[in-house]
Write a structure and sequence with these properties.
It contains 18 helices and no strands. By secondary structure, the protein is an all-alpha fold.
Length: 495
């Protein structure tokens, strides 16, 4: 049974009612708008809205016109959006090389002006192209880069979407534990931020994952919660997908029971599968989702075949085939035509069985050629990428060499300045020290001089004092002479 992961990659939004009216309104406004930045914005909106109704060629024309005008006006953000839109449209037209070129250009422009939302979006879209080409390691590389920026921007809605995309890439790599980890992380973010629609979406992704690991009870548990939320929100698209997943769970349960020889259990599970897929078909018919209508009719045809109800299997198989041929979905054509061939054989209609078988082979060959084309494109892109990487490496090495030389020059200047500063500081310290020593010596000399002067004064004072004492104690010369004369005269009077 065909099982697809729900909501794989959302690039620019979902189809909504009244789209044609909105497009007509935008075209009316465009006719009245001059060649200014407003015209660029309207052209981008028209491109996006036409994409939503699958009018890819006209949408691409508007995107290209927007690019031309935005370049002329040097309107960077408008140009980034135009490249992004052109990339998405080329992706839907399976022009993967052109898609990658446009998204890469959007990335360069966003990086040039440090426009983080544009960088994150470009990474996401480049990852999407690699996912479609089956290059899941490259897909993961760009999705992780996108996630990093979204977290820096605190873009919780975008972060949850990136985690969802990472989980789906791991599913395709059959790394189910890693896939479950990232889907659970997306689930938790959506729960914390009250994003009930996103929460239901994550539950459905986890439900589909549990179907792949044959953990059907866990799958049904998650689907039951998602079903309740979608009913409360009136989300018909989500309801259709939920019933489809429930039908898938019961179908695989039936196959396992059948392999074990448990016919009764198998039949009960097949009937539950029929009931849920039939409900899903009814809902998708109301929504008008042709792809899912074709896919679900293919699924229910397979269930009828298992129940040996071959006419019902043929009826639903032909409905799926007719829709798939209109849309050109080779994958559904390949699977349905194979199932129809088996059903016609059981009914004994070997002519129709042969016709269906030939259709199966033709679709298979076309898919093989398409896959080869994808691989060729991927090889070309890898070659271009490697060339760009090599050129970038050379440029980076050149920049590193210049930076190293500049760094060396700066170091020489810094060390020279440091050397001069050290010499200046050393000289200053020496001069200051000499000054201090001189001051100290002067102080000592002054102190010694003061001491000497003090001593001299003390000596002079002592001498003066001694002289005063001497003068006071000894008779004067006149007095001595007077006395000598008296004695002499006395001697003369006494012969």
């Amino acid at each position: 049974m065909r099982r697809s992961v729900t909501y794989l990659f959302i690039l620019l939004g979902l189809l909504f009612f009244g789209q044609t009216k909105k497009i007509d309104s935008l075209k009316t406004i465009l006719a009245k708008t001059g060649n200014d930045t407003n015209r660029v914005l309207i052209l981008n909106k028209l491109s996006i809205n036409l994409k939503l109704v699958s009018v890819y060629d006209e949408a691409l024309q508007f995107a290209e016109e927007s690019k031309t005008l935005a370049k002329k006006l040097d309107f960077k953000v408008g140009l980034i959006r135009a490249y992004s839109s052109a990339g998405v449209l080329n992706f839907y037209k399976s022009n993967y090389s052109e898609a990658l070129k446009n998204h890469t250009e959007a990335l360069k422009l966003s990086e040039a002006i440090a426009y983080k939302p544009g960088i994150s979006s470009a990474y996401n879209n480049i990852g999407t192209v690699y996912f479609e080409l089956g290059n899941f390691p490259e897909c993961l590389k760009y999705q992780f880069l996108s996630l990093k920026i979204k977290r820096e921007l605190k873009d919780t809605v975008g972060s949850a979407l990136s985690l969802n995309n990472i989980g789906n890439a791991y599913i395709r790599l059959q790394k189910y534990p890693e896939a479950l980890k990232y889907h659970n992380e997306a689930l938790q973010i959506r729960k914390e931020h009250g994003d009930r629609s996103g929460f239901a979406q994550s539950l459905e992704n986890i439900s589909a994952l549990y179907n792949m690991t044959n953990e059907f009870e866990k799958s049904l548990f998650n689907s039951a919660i998602a079903l309740k939320i979608c009913e409360e929100l009136g989300d018909k698209q989500g309801l259709g997908i939920t019933y489809s997943n429930i039908g898938g769970s019961y179908y695989q349960k039936a196959v396992l029971a059948e392999d074990k020889g448990l016919k009764k259990e198998a039949d009960e599970a097949y009937n539950e599968s029929l009931k849920n897929i039939a409900t899903a078909i009814k809902i998708q018919e109301e929504v008008g989702d042709k792809y899912n209508i074709a896919s679900l009719n293919a699924d229910i045809g397979l269930v009828y075949f298992k129940l040996k109800k071959y006419r019902e299997a043929v009826e639903h198989g032909n409905i799926a085939l007719a829709i798939a041929k209109v849309s050109g979905n080779l994958e559904i054509i390949k699977e349905v035509s194979s199932g129809l061939s088996n059903a016609y054989t059981k009914l004994g209609d070997h002519n129709k069985a042969l016709i269906s078988y030939k259709e199966h082979i033709a679709a298979k060959d076309s898919l093989f050629n398409e896959e080869n084309t994808k691989k060729t494109v991927q090889l070309e892109m890898n070659y271009d990428f490697e060339k760009k990487e090599a050129a970038a490496k050379i440029e980076n090495e050149k920049k590193e060499a210049i930076a190293a030389a500049e760094n060396k020059k700066q170091k020489i200047v810094i060390w020279s300045v440091c050397g001069i500063l050290i010499l200046v500081i050393t000289f200053a310290v020496y001069a200051f020290r000499s000054y201090l020593q001189k001051q100290k010596a002067n102080h000592e000399i002054t102190k010694q001089k003061e001491t000497i002067e003090k001593k001299q004064k003390e000596i002079l004072d002592s001498i003066h004092y001694a002289k005063c004492i001497q003068t006071a104690l000894l008779p004067s010369e006149r007095y001595i002479n007077k006395n000598l004369n008296y004695l002499n005269n006395l001697d003369k009077s006494n012969p």
